[in-house]
Specification:
This protein is of the alpha/beta class and 565 residues long. Helix content is 23%, strand content 18%. It is built from 11 helices and 18 strands. The strands form 4 sheets. Strands 1, 2, 7, 8, 9, 10 and 18 form a 7-stranded mixed sheet that branches. Strands 6-12-13-14-11-17 form a 6-stranded antiparallel sheet, with helices on one face. Strands 4-16-15 form a 3-stranded mixed sheet, covered by helices on one side. Helix 1 runs parallel beside helix 6, helix 1 runs parallel beside helix 11 and helix 4 packs across helix 11. The protein is globular, with a radius of gyration of 23 Å. It starts with a strand and ends with a helix.
């Protein structure tokens, strides 16, 4: 295999342009480093390429999903669970759904912008319930970076002083919508904490970016830069320094090393011409996503690293977790026959429920938060309407169908749980020795399994959501699933919160990186995605990926200034 090697040596090579990679590029470029960034997908200009204001009828498919845009044809993220030419495999009896983005900014172009800090207890769960492992850092170690992140990116929320749901530097939250107010009334009666959501969407102008104008199309890519994505917030200031070079369509093959065992750069395949190239750098930062980074390390084999780079512990790919998740929808009669009106708001929930119970009194060890949806945003859904019609024993077409739409539009609510999965020995990823992708790179094979901890948690979700719907005077649109149906849990990986494959720790025998996300085995190799997470917590992971990447990147800049790196 002939590799075209570039003569220039960069200070830093970053693999990945999403949350972790974008933050690393911003911090390091502003600190004076010359950076090259490898992105497996194409370039993306949110102002030119997004379809924020397009109508469904602008598409011959009326905006329906495509293989590369499973959340809708106009969705802001190019990628999916099944990418042509890029397979992954499953161990017998396992199902893991791996979502990958192939574009500048990665999955930051489509996510719910739910921006939750991990709390003090989330870093020390083993001392509370005896399960899993402790993080080598505490909330106090990360708090200054959360604070700086809030001020840089912008997040709305409310000061609630909840013990494990830390306050932030918040912009004013938007007012709740009608259905959200009804949900809160029921939650108050049931003793369920229900507070303003915490989303990285601007409700006031910040740092030269405009406030959200409430079009409700956040998932399509925000042309006004009012919500967070790496191409909107992190990459522009990095590019403005003149020190960042982005190489798109560059599928990383391996991290190269020298005779001294240090990283020397990254080799990659140009996905357009299918030729192999290599960039050289004094420092390598991997931010390709937890599983993609693990794949890259495991494929970076040499005589010195026969089991993969930075894998003397044998833990690369291990301790893989995803958030648990399921959704229950209900029909609320008092929301039927509503007066047509514009339900202004951000492209997401205005209220949510953080974990409110004591697990010591329950039959499962870790909690979940609740995301809510409903109302009249977007076009009426025939799927939801069909569920209501089945509930009422009705159906129809023509005038009857139109009348039903008018009557029932906006009369459904949905509750989605997002909970903590504990690491287990049956959930991990490894290299499949018999399969390669279209570029000849060995692919990942997944082993995945929930345990009784997660099944009992899912049962609690199902019962709680149905209790809220009944308290609202409504009826669930689906029957209560059984234990045999996993109580409706989505497959591992389906919530797209996978973390933990290169976990941090103080002991090189049981972890891949140290408390600064620096590889134990390779001192000029750092990881800036979700891989270093020791546990998943009951929160969405992006805000902690960003905070950790900022902390790690400042550490790299400090070591460069001191001549250590």
């Amino acid at each position: 295999m002939q590799v075209i090697r570039q003569s220039r040596i960069y200070d830093v090579c970053i693999v990945g342009s999403g949350a972790g990679g974008g933050m690393a590029a911003k911090v390091l470029c502003e600190a004076g480093a010359d950076v090259v960034m490898l992105e497996a997908g194409g370039m993306w200009d949110v102002e030119k390429d997004s379809k924020m204001s397009a109508w469904a009828y602008d598409s011959p498919r009326r905006g329906a999903a495509t293989p590369s845009r499973p959340f809708g044809e106009f969705d802001g993220c190019v990628g999916g669970w099944d990418l042509e030419g890029e397979p992954y495999t499953q161990a017998p009896g396992s199902t893991f759904d791996w979502f990958r983005a192939r574009m500048l900014g990665g999955r930051t172009n489509h996510w719910g912008r739910i921006s939750l800090r991990f709390g003090p207890d989330d870093f020390r769960r083993r001392s509370i319930d005896g399960l899993g492992d402790e993080w080598p850092i505490t909330y106090d170690d990360l708090k200054p970076y959360y604070d700086k992140l809030d001020r840089l990116v912008g997040i709305f929320g409310s000061m609630e002083n909840l013990p494990n749901e830390p306050n932030g530097v918040f912009l004013p939250p938007p007012k709740p919508r009608c259905y959200e107010l009804l949900i809160k009334q029921s939650c108050d009666r049931l003793g369920i904490t229900c507070i303003p959501a915490r989303l990285s969407i601007l409700t006031k102008p910040l740092n030269g970016r405009a406030a959200c104008h409430y079009c409700g199309q956040c998932g399509r890519g925000c042309a006004t830069h009012s919500n967070f994505s790496s191409p909107s917030v992190l990459l522009p200031p990095a590019l403005a320094t003149g020190r960042l070079r982005i190489i798109a369509n560059a599928m990383a093959r391996e991290v190269t090393t020298g005779e001294d065992g240090l990283a020397t750069g990254v080799s990659y395949v140009d996905t357009n011409d299918r030729r192999d190239y290599a960039v050289r750098a004094r420092i390598v930062v991997l931010a390709a996503s937890a599983c993609e980074t693990a794949r890259l390390l495991l494929n970076s084999k040499s005589a010195r690293f026969p089991d993969g780079l930075a894998n003397s512990s044998g833990t690369v790919g291990r301790y893989l977790t995803d958030s648990t998740g399921l959704t229950v929808s209900g029909h609320i009669p008092k929301l039927a026959d509503g007066v047509p009106h514009n339900e202004d708001g951000v492209g997401g929930m205005h209220l949510y429920m953080p974990w409110w119970l004591d697990n010591a009194k329950l039959d499962f060890p870790r909690g979940y938060h609740v995301e809510i949806s409903g109302g009249r945003r977007g076009a009426p859904s025939y799927g939801i309407l069909g569920g209501i019609q089945r509930f009422n024993g009705r159906g129809g077409y023509g005038k009857q169908l139109k009348d039903d739409y008018r009557k029932y539009y906006g009369s459904t609510v949905s509750f989605s749980g997002r909970g903590e999965m504990l690491p287990n020995d049956q959930t991990y990823c490894e290299i499949d020795p018999f399969a390669v992708d279209t570029y000849g790179i060995p692919v990942l094979r997944f082993h995945a399994s929930f345990t009784d901890h997660e099944y009992r948690q899912a049962k609690h979700m199902q019962e709680t959501f149905r209790e809220i719907i009944h308290d609202m005077g409504g009826t669930p649109l689906s029957p209560m699933p059984s234990r045999d149906a996993w109580y409706g849990l989505e497959n591992v990986g389906r919530i797209i919160h996978e973390v933990g494959t290169t976990r941090m720790g103080n002991d090189p025998k049981t972890s891949v990186v140290d408390a600064n996300c620096q590889a134990h085995d390779v001192k000029n190799l750092f990881i800036a995605d979700g891989g270093p997470f020791v546990s998943n917590a009951d929160k969405n992971v992006t805000w902690t990926i960003l905070a950790l990447s900022m902390r790690t990147s400042e550490r790299i800049a400090q070591q460069r200034n001191q001549g250590i790196l």
